[in-house]
């Protein structure tokens, strides 16, 4: 199971809690292995070391649990608890041989270490996800059971805790079964959580443009279908925008600067739209917006605002250069009109480019807006002025 969690961590490196859990399982398995294989007399000589390994495994389990939910394991308290537990184990083994005392102290120590992050987690718990909830409550149940195990065995075990060092004792069998079942349960839960996180990540990468993090063409069409099916969102408008002379920006100031411009444009788009609207990069310097509950004039006003904000930006290009963008807008009043509207907006965008750029074109009425003189230098030699 430690190996399975190790593989899960290898797949999802950013999920560091998997590495903590892998270490927890390894340490627990090693200490249980030593405990199973060492003869009774030898075990008594090494019981403090074996207990220390087991406590370290418990702390790794707590770390994994805490890390996943940004809680603290309170390391100083954990260390203090471990030291007190080890002193008690030593006392009940080497000074005053009393097995029940040793087992109670050990169970209590492990439970306290496991429960240290729980109050933090409960205070900040927001997730309603059933996998997360099962993980949380099975962890708490395991910690409580670890504390109560010696007591339960002393009450219900046929020989109480008297034969607890015997490999076939009720105490030892309960320990092995509970640890194995719990490890199995959290391995299955964590595998499910990791698989789901991987799928979410792949879906996110599939749907979003890597540079700007906005929707790509495929995801735009998928999301647009859902918007178009909702009658409450009409009328809609499609807005096709294309940065003017973008090639010159790349040529004059390099590809990185071009990338920054693309990021700036997409962030301005996202700032101006509403939650139901869609913003997508269709490729290169071409963007498409689906605006909901808006008529053509409203869409035009929005496009003009974006155009003016972009042209007044002085954070991305060197002083003296101005960023401009052209738009074509088309209306949508019924679900089947998307493809047609995209074509129309694209045609209007082309006309806007042809007639001088830095303007917004609508169907029927062409707006020869104030056409500012484009100040992006015409050739790469101009870059030396900046
Ligand atoms: N930096 C950067 N450049 C890109 C990216 N994708 C495409 N390009 C560049 O965008 C430029 C697009 O150039 P054109 O299609 O000629 O368009 P333009 O120069 O904006 O001219 P108009 O659209 O007519 O105003 C090309 O030089 C592409 O190499 C990208 O992700 N990052």
TrEMBL record:
<dbReference type="InterPro" id="IPR050469">
    <property type="entry name" value="Diguanylate_Cyclase"/>
</dbReference>
<feature type="transmembrane region" description="Helical">
    <location>
        <begin position="77"/>
        <end position="99"/>
    </location>
</feature>
<feature type="domain" description="GGDEF">
    <location>
        <begin position="234"/>
        <end position="365"/>
    </location>
</feature>
<dbReference type="InterPro" id="IPR029787">
    <property type="entry name" value="Nucleotide_cyclase"/>
</dbReference>
<keyword id="KW-0548">Nucleotidyltransferase</keyword>
<feature type="transmembrane region" description="Helical">
    <location>
        <begin position="105"/>
        <end position="122"/>
    </location>
</feature>
<dbReference type="Pfam" id="PF00990">
    <property type="entry name" value="GGDEF"/>
</dbReference>
<keyword id="KW-1133">Transmembrane helix</keyword>
<protein>
    <recommendedName>
        <fullName>diguanylate cyclase</fullName>
        <ecNumber>2.7.7.65</ecNumber>
    </recommendedName>
</protein>
<keyword id="KW-0812">Transmembrane</keyword>
<feature type="transmembrane region" description="Helical">
    <location>
        <begin position="46"/>
        <end position="65"/>
    </location>
</feature>
<feature type="transmembrane region" description="Helical">
    <location>
        <begin position="176"/>
        <end position="199"/>
    </location>
</feature>
<feature type="transmembrane region" description="Helical">
    <location>
        <begin position="134"/>
        <end position="156"/>
    </location>
</feature>
<dbReference type="InterPro" id="IPR000160">
    <property type="entry name" value="GGDEF_dom"/>
</dbReference>
<keyword id="KW-0808">Transferase</keyword>
<dbReference type="InterPro" id="IPR043128">
    <property type="entry name" value="Rev_trsase/Diguanyl_cyclase"/>
</dbReference>
<feature type="transmembrane region" description="Helical">
    <location>
        <begin position="17"/>
        <end position="34"/>
    </location>
</feature>
<dbReference type="GO" id="GO:0052621">
    <property type="term" value="F:diguanylate cyclase activity"/>
</dbReference>
<keyword id="KW-0472">Membrane</keyword>
């Amino acid at each position: 199971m430690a190996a399975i969690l190790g593989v899960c961590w290898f797949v999802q490196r950013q999920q560091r809690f998997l590495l903590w859990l892998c270490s927890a399982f390894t340490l627990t398995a090693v200490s249980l292995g030593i405990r199973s294989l060492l003869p009774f007399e030898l075990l008594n000589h090494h019981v403090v070391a074996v207990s220390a390994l087991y406590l370290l495994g418990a702390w790794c389990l707590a770390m994994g649990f805490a890390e996943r939910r940004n809680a603290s394991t309170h390391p100083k308290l954990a260390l203090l608890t471990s030291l007190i537990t080890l002193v008690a184990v030593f006392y009940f083994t080497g000074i005053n041989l009393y097995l029940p005392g040793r087992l109670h102290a050990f169970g209590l120590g492990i439970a306290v270490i496991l429960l240290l992050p729980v109050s933090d987690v409960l205070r900040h718990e927001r997730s309603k996800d059933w996998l997360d909830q099962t993980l949380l409550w099975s962890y708490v149940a395991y910690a409580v059971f670890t504390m109560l195990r010696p007591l339960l065995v002393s009450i219900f075990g046929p020989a109480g805790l008297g034969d607890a060092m015997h490999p076939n004792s009720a105490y030892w069998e309960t320990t092995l079964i509970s640890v194995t079942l719990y490890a199995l349960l959290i391995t299955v839960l964590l595998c499910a959580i990791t698989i789901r996180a991987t799928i979410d990540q792949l879906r996110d990468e599939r749907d979003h443009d890597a540079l700007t993090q906005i929707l790509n063409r495929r995801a735009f069409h998928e999301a647009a279908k859902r918007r178009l099916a909702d009658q409450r969102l009409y009328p809609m408008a499609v807005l096709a925008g294309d940065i003017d002379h973008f090639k010159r920006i790349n040529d004059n100031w390099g590809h990185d600067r071009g990338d920054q411009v693309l990021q700036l444009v997409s962030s301005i788009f996202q700032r101006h739209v509403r939650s139901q609207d869609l913003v997508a990069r269709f490729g290169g310097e071409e963007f498409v917006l689906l605006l909901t509950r808006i008529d053509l004039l409203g869409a035009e006003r929005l496009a003009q605002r974006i155009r003016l904000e972009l042209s007044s930006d002085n954070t991305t290009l060197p002083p003296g250069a101005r960023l401009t963008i052209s738009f074509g807008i088309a209306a949508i009043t019924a679900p089947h009109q998307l493809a047609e509207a995209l074509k129309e907006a694209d045609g209007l965008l082309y006309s806007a480019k042809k007639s001088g750029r830095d303007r917004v074109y609508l169907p029927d009425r062409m707006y020869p807006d104030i056409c500012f003189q484009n100040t992006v230098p015409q050739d790469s030699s101009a870059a030396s002025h900046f």
